[in-house]
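New to this. Please check this protein:
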Amino acid sequence: MDSAVAIELMQNSTALGSHPMVSMLSSCWELMGKFDTCALQHVYRKRNVVADCIAQRSYSLDLGVCFLDMAPSWIGSSLVDDLLGVTRTRLVSVVSSCSVFLGVLHPPSS
């Protein structure tokens, strides 16, 4: 599930209906209820590369919960880049009749 969609579902529980992830989302609401204050905010992957690296690595792990007591060595420079606020460009899907290249929108040529 896309993280922006997950945030939207978490913030708008009335739109869930019979969403296939309702059980997981309910567990998240239950956990959030144990904190005095809890806020959710979507962060694009180019601003949080470490989370993206961990998410990508999770596909190679067994199902279940994995706790990281310290930053794994394979995160390396991504952790430093995130701490310094370094952003990365990425390719984005084509939008309508305009082409998008490295996050810059170019109108179609005539």
